[in-house]
Write a structure and sequence with these properties.
- The structure is a single chain.
- The protein has about 110 residues and is mainly alpha-helical.
- The protein has five helices and two strands.
- The model has no long low-confidence stretch (mean pLDDT about 90).
């Protein structure tokens, strides 16, 4: 099985699990602000879809680690570099209290 197929399957199953069990985490992960010009959802939706994408990426890296260690080492370095940006975005999605400056600093740290 290829790494991209593993990433897709893990991401898809993680998304399904997040949506299936959203009643358990909707109080802190859903976007309840339905008013606004850019809002088109009728019901609150979870804002934590990045977890599923990141989980798929990590599982693909683990698979690739056993297949081609050099490529996996380089790719996992990139994923670790993106971790501050991902973490700050996830924190903002959960708390809705992280400002633009903090997210920009985290993005700068990831880019450095």
């Amino acid at each position: 099985m290829s790494a991209i197929l593993i990433a897709f399957l893990v991401s898809a199953l993680s998304c399904l699990a997040l949506l299936r069990y959203k009643h358990m985490h909707a109080s802190f992960s859903a976007d309840h602000d339905l008013d606004g010009i850019q809002k088109f959802h009728q019901t609150p939706v979870p804002r934590i879809g990045g977890i599923a994408i990141y989980a798929g990426l990590v599982c693909a890296l683990v698979y690739r680690w056993f297949e081609n260690h050099d490529i996996a080492l380089f790719a996992s370095t990139l994923v670790l570099c993106a971790l501050p940006c991902f973490g700050m975005g996830l924190l903002e999605d959960l708390t809705k209290r992280i400002g633009v400056k903090e997210r920009l600093v985290a993005t700068g740290i990831s880019a450095a």
